[in-house]
Specification:
313 residues; alpha+beta; five-stranded mixed beta sheet; two-stranded antiparallel ribbon; elongated; binds adenosine-5'-diphosphate
């Protein structure tokens, strides 16, 4: 009889302990469910904070928190992308609207102002033509950037004589250097240097960097190009001793549509896409590009090309 009542007592105790565990567990699960409800509602700062010694629950809590953290990061990234798309659309519409408005203004003048003589009409038509050209180039650049971003561009990678390519680009700009009274300091080693890349892309990069040195470095006197190499890379520096790039803006100049405040004011027909395209072309050839600027001493862009065929090609 006594044995029996001891057994019942033990059973009751076990049931009581189990009940307590179940109540505690259901409280914890309730708390987890409420926290997840908050997360679903969009409150991604919520985390499950449980002091728990039961291994599976501890593991579950850690994993749910990791999931919320990842979700939060994806949301933040999406928000940044959304903002940059909004900014880009507003910049593009501004860049397209300004020349379009002015073209329409001139056309209205040509059509409605009967006091204009032939010579004046021709001048206005020329302005409209120039602005139309600028718009066309702008659209081409937008198109290039979006093609490069969607990796919808096929590069023809082969071994190229870079010394020869640099020489050709220098010759093509010779008259411009002369016109702007800029001395060209060209440093190409006697022995030809070769690297792997796409000829058109390298020409585009060089053309853009030299053009920028002329366009923005016009207050200086020298334009320099150096060709160097080590065992793995070819380095091409394009530099000028013009006004340079302000320290606070230098980190942004490769960003889409970024034009230094001063250049925007000067209205140098800039789109802010030139260096974005340059960087993407360099990277598509598995190279890197960097810039250093010491105003009126040296503003230098350096990009690299691979001397060896990179595995990924
Ligand atoms: P854009 O199409 O406006 O010329 P880029 O992307 O080529 O734009 O250049 C971005 C900005 O970088 C320009 O607005 C200009 O202010 C600055 N920049 C580029 N090259 C030079 C340089 N050699 N000297 C000074 N500023 C430069």
């Amino acid at each position: 009889m006594i044995k029996m009542s001891i057994l019942v007592y033990i059973l009751m105790t076990i049931i009581a302990i189990l009940m307590i565990i179940i109540v505690l567990l259901s409280k914890k699960l309730n708390y987890i469910s409420k926290t997840l409800d908050e997360v679903v509602k969009g409150n991604l700062n919520q985390r499950i904070r449980l002091q728990n010694h039961i291994k599976p629950i501890k593991g579950l809590t850690i994993n749910i928190n990791k999931l919320i953290e990842r979700l939060q990061k994806v949301f933040e990234k999406n928000k940044i992308n959304e903002d940059s798309i909004k900014k880009m659309i507003s910049n593009i519409s501004h860049d397209l609207r300004t020349p379009l408005t002015s073209m329409l203004g001139y056309m209205e003048l040509i059509l409605n102002d009967s006091t204009l003589n032939e010579w004046e009409k021709r001048q206005y038509i020329k302005i409209v033509y120039d602005k139309g050209n600028h718009l066309y180039n702008l659209m081409e650049e937008f198109f290039q950037v979006s093609k490069l971003e969607s990796k919808d561009i096929i590069l023809n990678i082969k071994q190229i004589n870079i010394s020869e390519l640099v020489r050709q680009n220098v010759v093509a700009f010779f008259n411009e250097f002369k016109k702007l009274n800029m001395e060209a300091q060209i440093n190409i080693p006697e022995k030809d240097i070769f690297a792997f890349g796409d000829e058109k892309a390298i020409n585009r990069i060089l053309n853009n960097l030299i053009n920028n040195a002329l366009k923005y470095g016009y207050e200086g006197t020298i334009i320099g190009i150096n060709l160097r190499e080590n065992s793995n890379y070819v380095f091409i520096d394009v530099w000028d001793n013009g006004a340079g790039i302000p320290k606070e803006e230098i980190d942004y100049i490769f960003d889409r549509l970024y034009t230094v405040e001063k250049s925007r004011k000067l209205n140098l027909k800039s789109s802010g896409l030139g260096l974005t395209i340059v960087k993407k072309l360099v990277e598509a050839q598995k190279g890197t590009i960097s810039v250093k600027s010491n105003p009126f001493e040296k503003t230098e862009f350096t990009f690299t090309l691979n001397k060896n065929l990179v595995k990924i090609w």
